[in-house]
Specification:
402 residues; alpha/beta; 2 domains; five-stranded parallel sheet; five-stranded mixed sheet; 12 strands; globular
């Protein structure tokens, strides 16, 4: 009887989460996932809505909820129980789909997923993990068995839909550049877009903003701590000293972003060397806390020093700094939104180069073309305006691309 009681804990947690999840709003990624694949991975920063996506899939697509099972590997139940035993029980009792949350909490998670895939040949598995997760081709060889998707925080487009203000399909960059006047006019006929954009910049990137309201900044600080204190050591096996240094690095950078870093000064403040410093910085980027802008597209051959450092998104700026500088907020928004679907690099002139073809300056209403005049395919992304003209585009429009 003890085994059944123990199992009831997992089932009760599953039922409670399933009954609480809403289905009126779906992230844009939801319809892009090929849910028929046998092994699906969804990576993303904490708070981006991965758990909600799994539960929505179950709630809307399984008339017999017993065919699916949702589990979170940060549940204490797994401290004294074996995952493979649970999977075997689910499979032999008619289970066809398994949804595993927080997979990075389990050592050798890649080998375990491979074993589940091979040992239960008709079982469909969807798992989520920290954006820090790296698929190590030497462990389990998952690469040929799975599709992996990335779920960032809410785009401004998704935020407008989540708020019930405006709904539209994501824009392609070329269409945005060509038709931005028509696009902006269509939105502005329906809503006051500038006040909505200002709210989004302060609290709108993480879907849980609706749950916490006045406690949003504190909740974000807790997310930061969880990423550094829990996710980072679970994935990279770092020491407590490195965790403390990583947290200090984030706070030092938060006070000064954006900056072209003087790395030797930063390493001296942290009492660390170049190698460890770059590892910590890139871990913060993988964890969805920093945005690192470089003059060349990212290479996976090694850790490179960035040309400019940002916090990942404006919400983090408001949560971690007392008075964010508005110019930095604008640039952070632009970099965050464009980098989800485009290749963004640091140019010799201007603020951002996109896809090696377009050049952008970001600023307020009085921003001029002075710095990028006479450069082909150059544009201004301007804050505080509803509708632009020619190559002068409202900043908020760049939030409509995913």
């Amino acid at each position: 009887m003890k085994e059944l009681e123990d199992l009831e804990e997992i089932m009760r947690s599953y039922r409670n989460k399933l009954s609480a999840v809403g289905t009126t709003f779906h992230r844009g990624l939801y319809t892009k996932i090929d849910w028929d694949d046998r092994l699906i991975g969804i990576k993303g920063p904490r708070g981006s809505g991965k758990t909600t996506m799994l539960l929505q899939r179950i709630k809307e697509n399984f008339e017999d909820k017993g065919q699916a099972l949702y589990i979170s590997l940060d549940n204490l139940w797994f401290a004294s129980h074996n995952l493979m035993d649970l999977v075997d029980y689910h499979y032999t009792h008619g289970g066809t789909h398994l949804f595993i949350d927080e997979v990075h909490h389990l050592p050798y998670w890649q080998t375990l997923l491979k074993n589940i895939y091979d040992d239960f040949p008709t079982l469909h598995v969807v798992y989520t993990g920290s954006s820090m997760l790296r698929i190590d081709h030497s462990q389990g060889d998952l690469s040929r068995r799975q599709l992996v998707y990335h779920l960032p925080g809410l785009s401004f487009r998704e935020y407008l839909e989540f708020e019930g203000l405006y709904k539209c399909e994501p824009l392609e960059l070329e269409d945005l550049l060509k038709d931005h006047v028509k696009i902006a006019e269509a939105v502005c006929e329906k809503i006051k877009v500038v006040p909505a954009f200002e709210k989004y910049l302060k609290q709108g990137y993480y879907p849980f903003y609706k749950e916490v309201k006045k406690g949003y900044a504190m909740r974000l600080q807790q997310v930061v701590n969880q990423v550094i204190e829990n996710d980072y050591p679970a994935i990279d096996e770092v020491s407590m000293a490195t965790i403390r240094k990583t947290k200090k690095m984030l706070m030092l950078l938060a006070e000064k972003v954006p900056q072209t870093p003087v790395m030797t000064e930063l390493y001296a403040q942290l009492n660390t060397d170049r190698n460890q410093g770059l590892k910590m910085m890139h871990a913060l980027e993988r964890g969805g806390l920093l945005g690192l802008l470089s003059s060349e597209a990212k290479s996976f051959k090694g850790l490179a020093r960035p040309d400019k450092i940002f916090l990942n998104n404006p919400n983090l700026m408001y949560a971690l700094t007392s008075k964010p500088e508005i110019g930095t907020v604008r640039e952070t928004f632009f970099f965050n939104q464009l980098s989800q679907t485009q290749t963004v690099t640091f140019p010799k002139k201007g603020d951002f180069a996109v896809n090696g073809k377009y050049l952008f300056e970001v600023g307020g209403k009085n921003k001029s073309f002075e710095q990028i005049k006479d450069i082909e395919n150059s544009f201004l992304a301007v804050d505080g305006i509803e509708v632009g003209y020619h190559n002068r585009i409202p900043l908020w429009v760049f939030g409509m691309m995913y």
